[in-house]
Amino acid sequence: MTARILVMPGDGVGPEICREAVRVLEALASDHGLDIELEEALVGGAAIDAEGVPLPESSLTAARAADAILFGSIGGPKWDDQPRDNRPESGLLRLRSELGLFANLRPAILYPQLAHVSALKRDIVSGLDIMIVRELTGGIYFGKPAGRHMNANGKREAFNTMRYDEDEIRRIGRAAFDIARARGGRLCSVDKANVLDVSQLWRDVMTELHAEYEDIELTHMYVDNAAMQLVRAPKQFDTLVTGNLFGDVLSDAAAMLTGSIGMLPSASMDTNGKGLYEPVHGSAPDIAGQGVANPLATILSVAMMLRYTLDRGDLADKVENAVGYALDRGLRTRDIMDDETQMASTQEIGGAIVDMLR
Ligand SMILES: NC(=O)c1ccc[n+]([C@@H]2O[C@H](COP(=O)([O-])OP(=O)(O)OC[C@H]3O[C@@H](n4cnc5c(N)ncnc54)[C@H](O)[C@@H]3O)[C@@H](O)[C@H]2O)c1
Ligand SMILES: CC(C)[C@H](C(=O)O)[C@@H](O)C(=O)O
Ligand SMILES: [Mg+2]
After folding, report:
1. Do 338 and 321 share a structural domain?
2. Which positions does UniProt annotate for substrate binding (predicted)?
3. 284 lines ligand 1 (CB under 6 A)
4. I need a labelling partner for 322 at 20 to 30 A (CA). Which of 148, 196, 284, 300 fits?
């Protein structure tokens, strides 16, 4: 059956990197029998400019109808003065929430060709393959009450609420235990249970769930220590599971272990295998429009789409191998370049990968 893929390029470098990822999908369709139909929809600042809101109803309807979504990135200084609920970022948050995309998978894998570009020494990082499982539709991003006001002392005050109920924790916990079982069998749950009530509940529920997963080794770690351990000795981890805010921060840190934030793909899944696939990075306004953005995080997100939604693990392997070949040939965008390699544009990297796939 033809799979419907909705492309949401968004803002900044989003359209540039999506263009390359779409070329990859088109090459797979024409040369490898991938049965897909592509459609495009507005989101983020581009949607604010065109229709006044960051997630028009027509985009949400198209997203609901799609089997998978390829998402670029949203946001930028142009829209920073929008009220919170009408910022580009709100469009993405609403999309995640409305589609129930609660499980965010952020793999940090070091390509051996980039070992010397990593922020860490080669022996500490070589062979790195960790998976961060981030809860994506709850926690402090969505907790009520939240807001800004003038308090009784005449001072500006603002507040957010970090809230999880046990079902939300159990749901992401099960997803993470299942992923750990399919990987190295070790799960580290990251929280701040020495301070936060919500983290104490998180830890209790993870510990209870462990009874259903006795073959998996479960450990707990405080988030401050986890941030330190990620840059001290990242290979101690296999799978990590954590809440929305902690996962956001830890995954950007993990990106630098792989050489660049431009290397980190992600999948945001619902309970039925539908997914939104996007790079972990943002719209990179500082380099947008220059043709220098690294498209590999987005192309590797296509590989995740092939594996998790389209059930074409064979093609996912092909895409990941093609990325390896492009790196073998010394092709690099600026963020992962060194003295021995050749600077290539966003489009040249995409083109090289498409050539390998053909
Ligand atoms: N999922 C998303 O769409 C998403 C994610 C993060 C941030 N944002 C938004 O993006 C905007 C900019 O945020 P930011 O600057 O904090 O984070 P960012 O990830 O956009 O950029 C951080 C740094 O990484 C670099 N970078 C990012 N992607 C790159 C790529 N593919 N190739 C090479 N270099 C890359 C940028 O040039 C910048 O120096 C904000 O509006 C933010 O809210 C969106
Ligand atoms: C843009 C923003 C809402 C988003 C988040 O915090 O989830 C981004 O940082 C990410 O990591 O996907
Ligand atoms: Mg982030």
Report:
1. yes
2. 96, 106, 134, 224
3. yes
4. 284
